[in-house]
Amino acid sequence: PDDGEGDAGIAVKTKPRTKRPPLYKVLLLNDDYTPMEFVVHVLERFFGMTHAQAFEVMLTVHKKGVAVVGVFSHEIAETKVGQVMDFARRHQHPLQCTMEKE
Ligand code: TYC
After folding, report:
1. ipTM at complex level
2. Who's near 24: CB < 8 A, 6+ residues apart?
3. Mutate to test the pocket of ligand 1, among 26, 27, 30 (most ligand atoms within 8 A of CB)
4. Which ligand 1 atom is at minimum distance from the Cα of 67?
5. Could you report the per-residue pLDDT of 26-50, keeping only the tens digit for each?
6. DSSP for 50-68?
Protein backbone atom coordinates (compact mmCIF):
# COMPACT_ATOMS: atom_id res chain seq x y z
CA PRO A 1 0.00 0.00 0.00
CA ASP A 2 1.34 3.41 -1.03
CA ASP A 3 1.57 5.76 1.94
CA GLY A 4 2.03 8.58 -0.56
CA GLU A 5 5.51 9.35 0.84
CA GLY A 6 8.21 7.37 -0.99
CA ASP A 7 11.42 6.13 0.73
CA ALA A 8 12.74 9.52 1.82
CA GLY A 9 9.44 10.79 3.12
CA ILE A 10 8.79 12.72 -0.10
CA ALA A 11 5.21 12.90 -1.27
CA VAL A 12 4.72 10.73 -4.39
CA LYS A 13 1.43 10.84 -6.24
CA THR A 14 -0.09 7.72 -7.80
CA LYS A 15 -2.86 8.53 -10.29
CA PRO A 16 -6.18 6.91 -9.53
CA ARG A 17 -6.75 4.63 -12.52
CA THR A 18 -10.25 3.36 -13.27
CA LYS A 19 -9.90 0.37 -15.55
CA ARG A 20 -12.46 -0.09 -18.31
CA PRO A 21 -13.10 -3.72 -19.23
CA PRO A 22 -11.72 -4.74 -22.65
CA LEU A 23 -14.20 -4.91 -25.52
CA TYR A 24 -14.53 -7.71 -28.06
CA LYS A 25 -15.54 -7.52 -31.72
CA VAL A 26 -17.95 -10.22 -32.87
CA LEU A 27 -17.14 -11.23 -36.46
CA LEU A 28 -19.30 -13.00 -39.00
CA LEU A 29 -17.49 -14.99 -41.70
CA ASN A 30 -18.57 -15.65 -45.26
CA ASP A 31 -19.03 -19.15 -46.69
CA ASP A 32 -20.46 -20.53 -49.94
CA TYR A 33 -23.45 -22.41 -48.51
CA THR A 34 -25.37 -20.49 -45.83
CA PRO A 35 -28.40 -18.86 -47.47
CA MET A 36 -28.41 -15.06 -47.49
CA GLU A 37 -31.88 -14.93 -45.88
CA PHE A 38 -30.62 -17.08 -43.02
CA VAL A 39 -27.75 -14.67 -42.31
CA VAL A 40 -30.14 -11.71 -42.45
CA HIS A 41 -32.39 -13.47 -39.95
CA VAL A 42 -29.43 -14.15 -37.62
CA LEU A 43 -28.44 -10.48 -37.65
CA GLU A 44 -32.01 -9.37 -36.89
CA ARG A 45 -32.54 -11.96 -34.20
CA PHE A 46 -29.26 -11.86 -32.26
CA PHE A 47 -27.90 -8.40 -33.02
CA GLY A 48 -31.09 -6.32 -33.00
CA MET A 49 -30.64 -5.01 -36.52
CA THR A 50 -33.50 -3.82 -38.72
CA HIS A 51 -34.08 -5.83 -41.89
CA ALA A 52 -32.37 -3.11 -43.98
CA GLN A 53 -29.30 -2.97 -41.67
CA ALA A 54 -29.08 -6.76 -41.55
CA PHE A 55 -29.27 -7.04 -45.35
CA GLU A 56 -26.51 -4.44 -45.74
CA VAL A 57 -24.17 -6.16 -43.24
CA MET A 58 -24.89 -9.59 -44.80
CA LEU A 59 -23.89 -8.21 -48.23
CA THR A 60 -20.68 -6.75 -46.75
CA VAL A 61 -19.72 -10.18 -45.35
CA HIS A 62 -20.66 -11.83 -48.65
CA LYS A 63 -18.46 -9.43 -50.64
CA LYS A 64 -15.54 -8.83 -48.25
CA GLY A 65 -15.40 -12.18 -46.46
CA VAL A 66 -15.88 -10.89 -42.92
CA ALA A 67 -17.47 -8.01 -40.99
CA VAL A 68 -17.76 -6.82 -37.42
CA VAL A 69 -21.39 -7.24 -36.40
CA GLY A 70 -21.07 -5.82 -32.88
CA VAL A 71 -18.73 -4.86 -30.04
CA PHE A 72 -19.44 -6.19 -26.55
CA SER A 73 -18.00 -7.14 -23.17
CA HIS A 74 -16.30 -10.57 -23.10
CA GLU A 75 -19.33 -12.26 -21.56
CA ILE A 76 -21.89 -10.78 -23.95
CA ALA A 77 -19.64 -11.46 -26.98
CA GLU A 78 -19.24 -15.11 -25.92
CA THR A 79 -22.99 -15.44 -25.53
CA LYS A 80 -23.66 -13.97 -29.01
CA VAL A 81 -21.06 -16.25 -30.65
CA GLY A 82 -22.57 -19.26 -28.89
CA GLN A 83 -26.11 -18.33 -29.92
CA VAL A 84 -25.16 -17.86 -33.58
CA MET A 85 -23.05 -21.04 -33.77
CA ASP A 86 -25.80 -23.04 -32.08
CA PHE A 87 -28.55 -21.66 -34.32
CA ALA A 88 -26.46 -22.28 -37.47
CA ARG A 89 -25.62 -25.84 -36.41
CA ARG A 90 -29.26 -26.62 -35.60
CA HIS A 91 -30.18 -25.53 -39.13
CA GLN A 92 -27.21 -27.40 -40.60
CA HIS A 93 -25.55 -24.32 -42.07
CA PRO A 94 -21.74 -23.88 -41.92
CA LEU A 95 -21.99 -20.22 -40.82
CA GLN A 96 -19.05 -19.21 -38.62
CA CYS A 97 -19.04 -16.52 -35.93
CA THR A 98 -15.98 -15.61 -33.85
CA MET A 99 -14.78 -12.91 -31.46
CA GLU A 100 -11.52 -11.01 -31.02
CA LYS A 101 -10.24 -8.47 -28.55
CA GLU A 102 -10.68 -4.93 -29.92
N1 TYC B 1 -22.06 -16.34 -49.39
C2 TYC B 1 -23.38 -16.82 -49.00
C3 TYC B 1 -24.18 -17.14 -50.25
O4 TYC B 1 -23.82 -16.72 -51.35
C5 TYC B 1 -24.14 -15.81 -48.14
C6 TYC B 1 -23.47 -15.53 -46.84
C7 TYC B 1 -23.36 -14.21 -46.39
C8 TYC B 1 -23.00 -16.56 -46.04
C9 TYC B 1 -22.77 -13.91 -45.16
C10 TYC B 1 -22.38 -16.28 -44.80
O11 TYC B 1 -21.73 -14.66 -43.15
C12 TYC B 1 -22.28 -14.97 -44.36
N13 TYC B 1 -25.29 -17.85 -50.09
Report:
1. 0.98
2. 71, 72, 73, 74, 77, 99, 100, 101, 102
3. 30
4. 11
5. 999 999 999 999 999 999 999 999 9
6. -HHHHHHHHHHHHHHSEEE
